[in-house]
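Re: export button greyed out
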Amino acid sequence: MALDEVLSAGAVHGLPVFAAYESYLEHREGTCPSMEDPESEGPYGVWQTDHCETGAGYVFEGFGLYLVDCTDPADNDMEPGVGVDSRGLVSQYRLKAPDGAEMEAGGDCSHECRFDVDGGVSCFDQVGGSYRADGREPWLDVGVEASLFVTHEVGADGRRTTIDGGIGLPAADISFREVEVDWEECDGLATGTVAIRDPSGWWFSLVLSGDCSGYGELWLGDQDLGQICIDLAGTLRDAVAGWEQPCWL
Amino acid sequence: MLALIATLLALHGCGPAPVGDSGTARATDSGPGAVADPVTIPLDDLALLRRRSLDLTGLPPEPDQVAAVLEDPDAIEAIIEDMLRSPRWRLRFADMMAEQFLTRVDSFNATVESYGLDPSQEYRFESSVGTEPLLLMATIASADRPWTDVVTVDWTVADDMLLEIWPLQEISLEEAGLSDAPAEGWRPARYTDGRPAGGLIMTNGLWWRYWSAPANYNRGRAAALARLLLCEDFLLRPISFDASSLLDTDSLLDATSSEPACVGCHNSLDPLAAAFYGFWWFDIYAEPEMTRYHPEREWLGAYYLGTSPEYFGTPLNGPVELGPAVADDPRFLRCTTRRVAGGLLHREITDADQSQVSAWLDAFRDADLRVGGLVRAVLASEEYRAGALLDTASEDDEVAIQTLRMMSPDQLADSVEALTGFRWTEDGFDQLGNDDLGYRILAGGVDGVAVTRPQRDPSVSQQVVLRLLAQGAADFVVTSDLALPAEERRLLTGVDGDTTSADPAFVDQLETLHLRFHGRPATDDALAEETALFDAVAAADGTAAAWAAVIALLIRDPAFWTY
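Workaround output, generated via the alternate export path:
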């Protein structure tokens, strides 16, 4: 069903968006695009231009703001012992590569993980807006509209991920309401509600059972439509595992 | 001020007048607006024809309509029915709602450049966006469809530009249940981005105007819906609270759920705001965000506002249920009644009008929620037909009842264009339709942001704009008419460049002009004054300049721009 199609497209999160953006901004050249800070390097900083094209054929139109903070705990004077891996991207642009590939985006995207001296990790990932980048399989390539807020915590009391918001893909629109995955239970026990939208606007809500079966009860309003099974943890597992890898290592 | 002008006009016999030249003023109908003891003197038939024509078509009556009413005063009823069936009524209804819905603003967060359009398209772009919700309402109002369709249909209206830049697909008139196109260049269309049915409340045009700042969380949109469609204005509710608790963001947010004075509104406002997250933009200037509806965000209110969508206490299974909820709300029809009556009576309908509103609402319901039934009831009311006040009128009546109305910028521009062929534009901007490069506010209109209520009385600025318009239109029509064969001319059909005021054709032409511009025969005094003006200007600058002076005078005469 459509819900499986959306989940099989993989976890929607900020890092693939940043990677796609960087792949274009790495080709900036001189004043194309014009950076607010001419000394800024690589893809980082703020730019705005109606239209410009580099000698190599990369085209930039719009506005972008991309900031990165990768602080080794050993170098953190403000918060000794705390490592920070954060990125933020404000998008309002259309980018083109010489081969015809395009990236078009509007919205805010951020990702921040903090690593403490005890091995604890606390992450917040937000993808809000409309994003499409040719060739970036699986979900950026087809275009995604997202309003997704994900937290991931690793600590003495275990590993937990929470999801709120929604994902819109050509296959379907789905919504997460107070979804939580406890990675200490049956390799990823999901609770909360995942809803899928009928094209006419009606929402079917899957209330996850909270047991290790993966089944949930499907509802349309107060009408019980029976049980279905989804593998939410399987979709998330690789993504959140990647978040736990500090940028300075 | 208008009362003074009415008195002067009546004294000179040259304008809308109670029991005027035709001498055919009749007793008011015992319609819904009537009261036991009349407090007004009704307009005579010709003045009433002109008022109804300007209110229903935005234009003065045609000469054949004036002639028909002169011959048979009862002909006015059939003329009204023709007007309610004409495409002009649709445009006029849209203009009337524009003053209340305020969607025709001079800028949106997205611009022509956002869509790669030529900058010369700016006025058209802004006009098309602002007109979308208004023309959708007007299309429903003029079609034989219940008004509740306005918030439930799964289509909107669009012109070529909107069809090109927004996710819209044209649909057939049959599919939309229409017998003719909404307006020239406009067609029914359906959004293809997954937004649910909801008519007006699912249009980009409405929510581009009432967009939400990030920290407002769609509350402004919820308040706009309540104000525009239910006449329920959250901002007018009196509240009292400890201001010191609102000096920091956290306290402010906490107050919306804990401070009793705040909770009173936010308990219904916030769940309603939660129904608008399909229109939530993560970047308020990004074209892809603004252009498309975002179905996946429909439940985002639970994250931002801590509540799921509700309609005044009734849970919604998403925004798909919002339109039907509005349609079922008794406040919706009552509010529509107030808005339509207010548009026709040129004043704000208040709680003091409850009994009249109830009577009009009954007529609206009796017509199976067809707007035409409501309009007929208002047109038949004593207040609508009032040409002057009796001594028995109270002070409240004197304040409320508009015995004389001033043309809006839309009516002025449309009427002058219909009569002279002149549309005042500059670099593609309609000079009476915007304030970026125009004079809409100065002419008495609203820009939808800084000025939100139309000017009801004349002003110096309005007169300056009127003078410029009159001069431009008069020069245009005289120059073009005198260059054409008589049968192809608009106004100067009975004279040529050699005609003098001594020729019989001169007076005939003047009388015809009076009928066209003022909707009634000229008085002897007026003819004498205009002849003197013609002779003076002709002696100095020639015949063409003289005719231009006369036509400009007719336009600047209060008998033209008031009704």
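Chain A touches chain B at residues 50, 90-92, 104-108, 128-130, 145-147, 149, 164-168, 173-175, 177, 195, 197, 199-203, 220-221 (CB under 8 Å). The button fix ships in the next patch.
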